[in-house]
């Protein structure tokens, strides 16, 4: 199996290398063929691995493939831990990635227009893009298949790097550059916590290997650390690691980079900023469940952060007018649901929602991208409308995706999200009551913004200009095939996966849950099949709230809109201070800009002027550089070019050595 | 130590690689007489085949059990196997890199091949020497060929001057070595390393004549390596000699010099480790300091690499002076790796030297990434490796040496070495900056032949792969010093 796992990881890497370094030689077709081949191999093998785990009871694999070095007894290795959790993640990552690869052929077809004509930066941008997304697939696989913290960190940073490169893919656009800088900086904050967490693990456990750390964890559960007046070691490690997850999975208050990341091309918004990379934090916490279970403080922290993000970020989605930003805020909100599930110890539910969300959110993003292609890269939903007639496949798949998102009974999102809300309801750790309330209300918000978007884009009278309208048509098959391929699991996967994942505890040993914190056993204990679950769900508040949101959205943005085209603007005006608050995104950006960016600029300027320029540059750096330079200048004159000087130096050396070692 | 019974047949088998090189050299010498000027490719082909056959022969006669031959004057053991293999591989690279350069300058004649082959033969003999006489024989065979090769460009004044300096100073160095050997002979009554080792074991450090001989012999070694203050010939020879000769001079002979140091210092004079260890401390600190600092002030790339060589010699000495098996193995690892890095760096210089236009100045490297991206990448790889940036093998080599000396409690020495490496990193990274961030000064396209491109790629891959999988080579080095 080791060979299979290695192939899964290396095939996308090889594709990325070929497309990246030889893109100019192999051309566009060559680049997309080779990367799709690489990712296709990885997908097929991943699905095969998953099927082995499902039907053949494959045993978990935990092995090292390469030892980089051993220092002080700590092994720095590359290794794979493939259990059911990993197999599931591998299948999701590679499948979505493959769909996005295919889709990109259509999306990037006329990429040349996006670059200034007289610059060289746009050369081979198509090949470069394919190289990046293949590289991303490799990095993400390294992350999920890791069996140690070092490799986890490598994957973590590598996906961050590719994300950075892709957000700023259009290097000639200022907004893209500031967006990728923002993503980079905010992720630095998260990674700072993450690496401190890993450092704490190394310090107290003396190992980077998951299995070894998890085995020692119960013994160290009561250790106290003298930080901040004494906290439990587990709480410290878990919260530090979770800060990393907050950066990567864009949880408040480190969420600010994700909406801006929409500057990147749409395929990567689907792949990286919706389906896979941003869920790395969710995966990481689930993987670390043996540690998190030992600290209810950390779990409460996780739960509250997740629930707050889920509700408040959904609200912001209501006032956005850029089609991708609406979906982006919806992603933030859904990530909040997953994180909240983890906080409630319902790791399986979190992973379940991660999977369903990966399908329907990738679908929604790709559908949005399809609309954007048709609209000639106009992303403002106020200029759309009535697209359903022109783009039937995009329309129907987007509708299916939206229904899955708002947890319409029977759709995949329904099973996963209802399970989360129910699990949080059964949780008794601190903050669970608040979290349950926020998540329940979130259902209403989700439905409202999703269907506002849906009605504004696909229904009503077309509002685009005449030129765009005359060119409207369905996008090519490379775009629609992935939409259809993603729509199928968006609808059905929940029905088939809920029973094994949540009821039969399919993930098994991959996840550790303490019996007293197990919030999913209620669900399992009262399980009477999917139909009963749906019937039960339809009697609960979240269902009615989301139906209310759906109806309200239909009323305003379909019924009223036909009579009053300005209803959207009027509604926002009627919102008053609330709208302002939402449009300012609760002021996080301003706050960061003023306090962190401004403050650090001021500190930086102070340090630069006073200490750096005078002290460090003046005395230390330039001083020592000048000293070395001067010394070099002097000593080189020893090399006179005269033979007798050279011979003299040798004799002198001889005499000195003889004096030192023979006569003394 | 168990050895096989020496007989003439087994002796001949033991020297099979040397025989192959000798036969090749003679064949080229004769064949050259019967080929027209436009058929000189055959010399090249013969040489390459000879080197490859010798490489196979090394693998064929190699093994973990040492074999002595010719009345114990010759030895074949794991150390000689590995070092011979490395010498032959690096020499192969030399021939391949140098081909276009020498042909364009009409220096691609039979003598060039013959002299280089005899130099290789000299090195192989040095590596397998089991006594001072054999060692000296190999050393002089190597040195005489190198003197002639440095002056190979007969019209170049600089070349002639460099060769003259090299010859005179080399004679002085050899004289000192020979004097040291005579002292050791006087004290021990034998030329074999084992005899000297026995004398050291019985008389120990009290015998001043032994220490006297040791100092002289060590100076001979230091001269061959180019350690401060016996380094003066290096910059001038590097600058004056034709670049292909410098490529050769800077790579394979360092491996042979390591063998010489290992044979004399460890096998013969291992008992005087406390004495020569202290001398090496002085030499290595001086080399690290002078090499790294003066390299910064150089504008000529060949001179810069000459000083870089001096600083790397400091590191090899550090490994030796640790006096432990781990230290010896790390020094051996370092010298093999250094030869590879140096071959790669000079190889790139050769490949970008166009007809009639030698690359001499650092400025000639400016903007190379625009003109020849792959070669620029390879050069950057070599520079990173020399500077000791992970994951390149140069990092591992430095790390192993530092580990060895720290294990011996010489932390201050490790700190000195690291400090000078950091200073040294400046001039390596400056080259990388020139390659990628400066505007090219010339638009002349770079033309290379396929075999050289393959060779440089293999060379670069070796630097990278050995850095990621250092264990294989290091284990081989450790086997050479079984403790």
Summarize the structure.
The complex is a heterodimer of chains A (664) and B (483). Chain A has 664 residues and is mainly alpha-helical.
Structural notes for this entry:
Chain A: One of its GO terms (biological process) is electron transport coupled proton transport. Chain A: Keywords: Membrane, Transmembrane, Transmembrane helix. Chain A: Pfam families: Proton_antipo_M (PF00361), Proton_antipo_N (PF00662). Chain A: The chain crosses the membrane at residues 6-24, 36-55, 85-108, 129-146, 152-172, 184-205, 225-247, 268-286, 298-319, 326-352, 358-375, 395-415, 435-457, 477-498, 541-561, 643-662. The complex is a heterodimer of chains A (664) and B (483). Chain A has 664 residues and is mainly alpha-helical. In chain A, 72% of the residues lie in helices and 4% in strands. Chain A is built from 27 helices and 4 strands. In chain A, the strands form 2 sheets. A two-stranded antiparallel ribbon of chain A has the order 1-2. In chain A, strands 3-4 form a two-stranded antiparallel ribbon. In chain A, strand 1 (61-71) and strand 2 (74-82) form a beta hairpin. In chain A, helix 1 runs antiparallel to helix 4 (125-145), helix 2 packs parallel to helix 4 and helix 11 runs parallel beside helix 14. Chain A is globular. The termini of chain A are far apart. Chain B has 20 helices and 2 strands. In chain B, strand 1 and strand 2 (74-76) form a beta hairpin. The model of chain B has no long low-confidence stretch (mean pLDDT 90). At the A-B interface, helix 26 and helix 27 of A face helix 7, helix 9, helix 10 and helix 12 of B.
